[in-house]
């Protein structure tokens, strides 16, 4: 097999799974991965009709052809395109369904993948993070790129050299670049799912609805109009001096601006991809 590498940029897609900056230490069956084989892994959902999707798939196809030109049995799989049953393109169908392991109901295999191809990137090397300032890309802190945000990924691809059912291509990211925002995807149940509508009306002894001063007495709350109430004056002590004539009493109350809203999520499912690597009717997708 000859090693041939192609380079490109992915179309803009949504980061929906994995972590570009934390290496995987266990496999899908929770078995430890040897340290020398641990890699960074993440998945991006790209709309099937996104500009540049055909070109990206073409680069994968070109790298596969060059790598397996002298392996007819693998070339048979490559020529089947995304319908290949024994070739890993690192691209899977976001509309694929599966049975929920608990309920048995049919559901999307990729929760946020409807209408998209799912590109699965991995590498053993650290991945750079970037964003745009106007039209100029600059490096940024990885914490600025969250699951649910929209990114583009410069990548390289080449054949993996395997001759059995694990034959396929690598899809190695070089940089992940933030280009837009969507609803953040977080793991686990939401706060509303965890806590419900509230704790109810019950108040244990000693509990108050406002913070308490040292010693247990409630701290003074705000007066009508937002100005804080003066602290109580101990018996026998003079009260606070009155404000000079014409001066306002108490502190003014300011306002806060709500955080900017994020753009909405992914658009409605586009029509099926019609490029030359599209699977025929009823065709399958490559393996993992």
Question: What can be said about this structure in brief?
Answer:
With 288 residues, the protein is mainly β. Helix content is 9%, strand content 23%.
The order of strands across the largest sheet is: 4-7-3-2-10-13-8-9
Order of helices and strands: EEEHHEEEEEEEEEEH
Rounded to the nearest angstrom, the radius of gyration is 29 Å
Strand fraction equals 15-25%
Overall pLDDT score: 80
What's the end-to-end separation, in Å? Answer: 21 Å
Shape: elongated
H/I helix tally: 3
Tell how many strands the DSSP assignment holds.
Answer: 13
Describe the biggest sheet? 8 strands, mixed
The SS-based structural class is mainly beta
Q: Low-confidence parts, pLDDT < 50 over ≥5 residues?
A: 241-276, 278-288
Assign a percent range to the helix content. Answer: under 10%
Tell me the quaternary state. Answer: single chain
């Amino acid at each position: 097999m000859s090693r041939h590498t192609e380079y490109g940029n992915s179309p803009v897609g949504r980061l929906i799974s994995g972590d570009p900056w934390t290496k995987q230490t266990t496999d899908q069956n929770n078995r430890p991965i040897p340290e020398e084989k641990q890699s960074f892994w993440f998945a991006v959902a790209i709309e099937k009709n996104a500009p540049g999707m055909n070109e990206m798939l073409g680069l994968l196809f070109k790298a596969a052809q060059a790598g397996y030109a002298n392996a007819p049995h693998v070339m048979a799989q490559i020529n089947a395109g995304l319908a290949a049953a024994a070739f890993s393109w690192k691209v899977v169908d976001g509309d694929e369904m599966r049975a929920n392991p608990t309920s048995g109901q049919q559901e999307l295999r990729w929760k946020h993948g409807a209408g998209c191809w799912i590109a699965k990137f991995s590498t053993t090397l650290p991945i750079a993070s970037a964003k745009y300032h106007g039209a100029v890309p600059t490096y940024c802190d990885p914490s600025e790129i969250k699951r649910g945000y929209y990114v583009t990924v410069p990548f390289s691809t080449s054949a993996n050299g395997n001759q059995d059912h694990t034959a396929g291509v690598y899809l190695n990211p070089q940089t992940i670049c933030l280009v837009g925002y969507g609803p953040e995807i977080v793991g686990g149940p939401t706060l509303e799912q965890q806590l419900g509508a509230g704790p109810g009306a019950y108040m244990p002894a000693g509990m108050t609805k406002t913070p308490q001063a040292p010693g247990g007495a409630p701290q003074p709350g705000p007066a009508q109009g937002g100005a804080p109430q003066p602290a109580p004056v101990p018996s026998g002590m003079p009260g606070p001096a009155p404000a000079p004539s014409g001066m306002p009493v108490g502190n003014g109350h300011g306002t806060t601006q709500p955080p900017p809203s994020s753009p909405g999520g992914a658009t409605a499912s586009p029509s099926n991809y019609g490029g030359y690597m599209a699977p025929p009717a009823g065709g399958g997708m490559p393996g993992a």
